Amino acid sequence: MGTRRKYFGWHDQDNIWKQSTVLIGPDHYSVSQYDVVLKTVNPGTLFALTYHAYPQCMPSFSSGMVLESSCLEKIDSLAAEVRDIAKGYNVEVWDGEGADHTATGGDFGHSFLPTFVSSFYYSWLQGALPLNGVKVSARQCLIGGNYGLLNKTTFQPNPDYWIAYIYRSLMSQLGQDVSSLNVNVTEPIIGTKSFAFTADASKNTVMVVLINLNLEHAVLFNFPSGYMSNSLWRLQGFPNASSTTLSINQNVINFNGTMPSLQVLADKTEAASVNVSGAEIVFALVTQHS
Fold this sequence. Notes:
It is built from five helices and 14 strands. The chain is α+β, with helices and mostly antiparallel strands and 290 residues long. The chain has helices spanning 32-40, 69-87, 116-131, 159-174, 262-265; strands spanning 24-28, 48-53, 92-98, 136-137, 179-180, 184-185, 192-198, 205-212, 219-222, 227-237, 246-248, 251-252, 273-276, 280-288. It is globular and about 55 Å long. Helix 2 packs parallel to helix 3 and helix 3 runs parallel beside helix 4 (159-174).
């Protein structure tokens, strides 16, 4: 079952489905096929070019990393490659499906795809795709299989579900026409990544995502000069990154009939920088102070 995500700053995707005919495709893993398809169909026939993205990233605990950043960077490069192909045909680019690693033909994928390890991939994906011109990110499976957002036995959300929930909740607070903003890392080390978005022309309010792939090494992220965080959400695997349960600001998250309130869970401490622990993902809303 496919799920659609509507991203900030893009036209209302819901209106697309009200049109009489909308064709998207080819939803294939081979980039070489995209140009062939676009040359074959009549101009205007295809609304969106959809592609598969499996960077084939595996846990790298023995090297001190949750996942290797060099592997996750394939998300950015593939998105940019497909975007450049689509530009010549005036079609949108949609991420049709993907995961850290393919898990067909065997059960090895069951060991880490439903865990917090995958959330480092999914957080990176949700931040990188819009910056590379990808309009929609789709999750190929809501429940069941190897890529489900929900546990197929308990129906509890897997960690990736909460990543999608937080992204969507915080992005909706920003509004439309979101753009990127630089966030500096005090100690530039391998295994760190940051994304920042704002919808305010004056850039008064910014949503920041900070990713630390290092298992044990904490990293200090400095916000741009004049910015202070006012709401912070620290995500960790509970009790560790290999768990299917996560905590937000040390509160273990489970679905008990109602969605958790991000405002209640938020750390309201104001700060000009954030120390991100090993194997931790941080979401923050920061504001500009005069």
